[in-house]
Every structure is written in structure tokens, then in C-alpha cells.
Amino acid sequence: MVNAIVGANWGDEGKGKITDMLARESDIVIRFQGGANAGHTIVNDYGKFALHTLPSGVFYDHTTNIIGNGVALNIPVLFNEIEQIVSQGVPRPKILVSDRAQMVMPYHILFDEYEEERLGKSSFGSTKSGIAPFYSDKYAKLGFQVQELFDEKALRAHLERIAPQKNVILEHLYHKPSLDIDELFNTLMEYKKMVEPYVCDVSLYLANAIKEGKDILLEGQLGTLKDPDHGIYPMVTSSSTLAAYGAIGAGIPPYEIKGIVTVCKAYSSAVGAGAFVSEIFGEEADELRRRGGDGGEYGATTGRPRRMGWFDCVASKYGCRLQGTTEVAFTVLDVLGYLDKIPVCVGYEIDGEVTTDFPVTTKLEKAKPVYEVLDGWKCDIRGIKNYSDLPENCRKYIEFCEEHIGYPIKMISNGPKRDDIIIR
Ligand code: GDP
Predict the structure, then answer these.
(1) Fewer C-beta within 10 Å: the chain N or C terminus?
(2) How far, in Å, from the CA of 214 to the mean position of ligand 1?
(3) Sequence spans of domains, the chain
């Protein structure tokens, strides 16, 4: 059976922890989109890890971890991440990389930097991991698949074909040095050595695994609001963050995805630019940021402070709907224990009218939050295992959010550790 874990919001909802937990019951964990631009933070018996490329199943010796064709594969990042976790005492994981996955090329990273530099103040706040130039090339049919590393003659010819196009932009738009084909070729040969042990026909492997009844988990990165079609375009990421894309980015039939666990954080945070209706500022935001997550809300990849806000029912309802949610995991609830009163955004006021339906970007820019204020529970809820043992105001908060988003909250995460979880 295939399940997906995805985010309802802007990412950083705590998917890594929920995936790590559910990976325990899975035979296979697959990354199907995105690249090393975001990261999961996972705390387990081996320590604390920030994974950017590896699937979250790497900590279990019974799971096979797959990089699907939909991923922007940065081979040295993958290689270093494997070596890093092994050096921290994790048994060497079983990893497969799709022969159809495309590679982040060294120049994708440069183009990302140059473009953000060119845009200056109106930049996207990219993590400069090369993701946008990578996906642009993929869909412009200028990309390089992993399988090409194994035909050196064709690879060199492909490099020679794309270089003139890249060089025009490098020279005339960015005023930077042009590509050195020999150097690129040699770098790719290094990549080949790193990735060779893992390369596989992933969709075939998965077709057999499905036939054998294996438990398969699709692991999403970021969340609905960063989806290029359904998110806050153009302040989005460059690959689909929706569970539906799991079918494409892994190479499985869409009807095989039976369960979609959508992760919602009990308050909001976002990185990068773009509308964020329930955003808070100043001391109020600083305190939530400081207390948030596990050691503060700072980007797993860049370390930059995240933008903070109250729980947004409008965005989360939309986020869950587009994912096709079968159940919600409500995370980082313990962090709110310090508040006397907790505002929850229940509607957007746009040009004098209140809506609970998430609007398109131009309207979103004008939206003002409509809040309802709930009573806090003023205590530490970490360590609680049963729903009925949660303080009454805490249960009221969960049930209030559940009613407004319209999807069942079946898991509640009340701490960063694997077993800080309440199943309802
Ligand atoms: P992801 O990209 O969706 O996996 O999100 P992050 O890696 O940003 O995870 C959010 C942070 O919150 C990490 O530091 C986690 O260890 C931490 N975290 C996850 N769940 C909980 C929780 O229920 N409570 C607390 N306090 N921290 C959590």
C-alpha cells in the first residue's frame, strides 16, 4: 500500500518527524520532488539530523530509500549526506536513485546565485541550491538525466549542445565567466563514481514492490502553498508539492496512493517572500520563533529566521483540500503552551468581504486576517500520550482548528521526539 506525507502550508510543518515515525512501518520511503533546497529536521536515538536530500527512512535498516525521478538530484549533496549520517553512527542505508532523475549541474547553482543578485530587492529569497534553474532546464529539455553519465560520448555531445545557450546568458546578462566543458565533464565523471552504486530503474522496482504488497511512503517537501500551480505563485517552489505528483515523481499509478497524511503545524511559519496573511511581527513573533520547533524556527538549510504567524484555517483548509487529505497530523502543539490567549485566523477580509476560501495571489495580497481568540492551556503538554489527558483548552484548540479546516486530525505531535505523539 502506498501512503503519502505532505505539507498543508509553507513547509517546515514537521513532516520529517512524522515521516521518520511512519517510516518505521514502511518497506520503502521515496522522495518524489524538490531538491536540497529544503530540509527536514529529525531527532532520533542517533542524534539530531538535518536531511536535505535523503529520504527520512534512512535511519531504519529495514527500509529502502529512494530518490525518485521527480527530484532535483544534487549528487555531491546526496553523497555527503550519506557519509555524514554514517559517520554519526547510523548503519549504512539502502539507497536507490532513479536512472531518470535529473542532476543539478554546478552551473544551476551559479545561475541561481546570479539571478538573485540581479533581482536584488525583488529576489525570491531562493536558497541558491539551483532548484529554479534546474527545473527550468528540465522542462526546456536542456537537463541531464542520471543515465547519461553511463554514455560518455553522448554526454560530452550533450554538454557541447547546451553550452552556447548558457554562455550567452552568462556573458551578456550576468557578465560572468562562460562554461568550461572539460571541467564540467570531469565533474560529471566524479558524480558518476558517487552515484553508480545506487542507480536503478525505480518505476520497475516499485511496480514489483506494489505487486508484492510492500508498504511504501511518499515523502513530500515543502507544502501546498509552495506548489507552482496551486500555491502563492510566483513565490513558490519549482516542482509540485502535492501528493498527486508523487505518482509522477516516483513513477507509480495514481490510484495506488491510498492514504494522504497532511501535516499542519499548530501555528504558522514561512521562509522566503510572498503573502502571509496571519503573519505577526516584533516581540510577539520573536517569542514564538524562539520557542518554536525544536530550538527555534530557523531554516534547516540556510539558518535564517522564519517568518512567524498564528494558525491559519483558511490556508490550511485549502492546503489540505489540494493534497487530498485522508488525515491530518497536527504538529508542534506543545510550543503554544506559554500563551494566555491564542489567536486563530478563521477568515480573510478582502475589499470589505470575509471569505474562508483561499484566494488567488492578487487578492491574497489585499487579505487581512479575521481572528478568533481562544484560551491557552498554560502548561507543558510534552509526555502526554492520550488525547483525553490533554488539558481541556488544548483539546478545544485542536477541535476548533479541525472544524475550520474540515479534515480529521488523527495525530497530534507534542514534542520533537519520535514518540512524542498522540494518536486519536
Ligand atoms: P519539515 O521540513 O516539515 O520536516 O519541518 P522541520 O524540519 O522544519 O521541522 C520542524 C522542527 O520542529 C524541527 O526542528 C523538528 O524537530 C521540530 N518538531 C517536529 N515536531 C515537533 C513537535 O511536535 N514539537 C516540537 N516542539 N518540535 C517539533
Answers:
(1) N
(2) 28
(3) 2-101+198-261, 102-195, 263-423
Answer yes or no: CATH 3.10.290.30 is held by domain 263-423: no
| Protein residue with least CA distance to atom 14, ligand 1 | 294
**What pTM, to 2 d.p., does this model score?**
0.93
Residue 20 CA to residue 31 CA, distance in Å, equals 13
Class of domain 2-101+198-261: alpha beta
Q: Report the largest interatomic distance among the alpha carbons of the chain, rounded to a whole angstrom.
A: 68
Cis ω for the linkage preceding 234 (within 30 of 0): yes
Can you tell me which atom of ligand 1 is nearest the CA of 331?
Answer: 23
- pLDDT 10s digits, 67-86: 999 999 999 999 999 999 99
Cis preceding linkage at 254, omega within 30: no
User: Residues with Cβ within 6 A of ligand 1?
Assistant: 7, 11-17, 38, 40-41, 43, 293-294, 300, 331-332, 334-335, 413-416, 420
Query: Which of 293, 230, 266 has its CA nearest to residue 402?
Result: 266
Which of 15, 56, 261, 332 has most ligand 1 atoms within 8 Å of CB, for mutation? 332
Q: Write down the pLDDT at residue 36.
A: 86
Cα 167 to averaged position of ligand 1 atoms, centre (Å): 42
Task: Give domain 102-195's CATH number out of 2.60.40.10, 1.10.300.10, 1.10.10.60, 3.30.70.980.
Answer: 1.10.300.10
Interval 261-273: pLDDT, tens:
999 999 999 988 8
User: How sure is the predictor about 388, in pLDDT bands with cuts at 50, 70 and 90?
Assistant: very high
To 10 degrees, what angle do helices 392-405 and 313-323 make?
60
Catalytic residues: 12, 40
